TrEMBL record:
This is Protoheme IX farnesyltransferase. It is a multi-pass membrane protein. Gene3D superfamilies: UbiA prenyltransferase (1.10.357.140). GO terms for molecular function: protoheme IX farnesyltransferase activity.
Amino acid sequence: MTTATMPSTTLPADWRDFFALTKPRVMRSVVLTGLCGMLAAPVHLPFALGFTAILCIALAAGAAGALNQWYESDIDALMKRTAKRPLPAGKMDRETALHFGVGLGVFSVLLMGLAIGLLAAVLLAVSILFYVLIYTVGLKRLTPQNIVIGGAAGAFPPLIGWVAATGSLSTLPLLMFAIIFLWTPPHSWALALLIRDDYAKGGVPMLPVVASAATTRWQMLFYAVLMAAAAVSPWALGLAGIPYGAVATIGSAVFLALTLWVVVARAGTPAEMKAERFLFVYSIGYILMIFISLAVDRLIA
């Protein structure tokens, strides 16, 4: 792992440090997309079981976040964006973070299996292992395509939510998986363009660090086009109605327009950073809008 200067003493951790380990902002998106996957399903769970399934998805996301921070504490200490996390800030030792992450992950999978079903539990376990072993350990430090392949980890929640409700897979949850998978590169690279110096300092080979900004922008556009096609597919295939189709079409058109703005923005100018920042912020709202509108569309159909 990358050498970093870590605090020589560890302060007593409190609940806020454990909560920060779970990456709560990421967890919120995971919970929402998982819930939307569940609500979009043709079968609706009783409230207690539905709540338990979403709780398991949240706990699994928290476990993955904790294990990610345990493994990347050296990188986090080097980057301004992450230097105040509990481990690099010296508020918690790595062993505690490891035990917390493993315990949370095992509990979430066991609870999902006992309360909901085997397939949902298996998918939940795969999502944790994919994020920790494939993305965090295997890809992030080795290849600029880390976020492309690793993006699959963040695409599991709607799949798990659907399976929790139905016990099986079908076309729509696979399309929901594809939307998040294809959305992740332009979303993540928009941020990476803004803070590429920070990633370079941490030794993380994000695409803007090892390739030109122009290469990154064109790849963002490539994935944005594929994402837009995946987003309108539920409507085009008759799996969602006109309200969703309108939201997906208009929302995706705006996403593509903002991505084109990033592509054509003159390098090294305030307009470049403004375009990247606009796309990053919009991309967060976009994915939430897509999934909420799909769930509502299916509920009122």
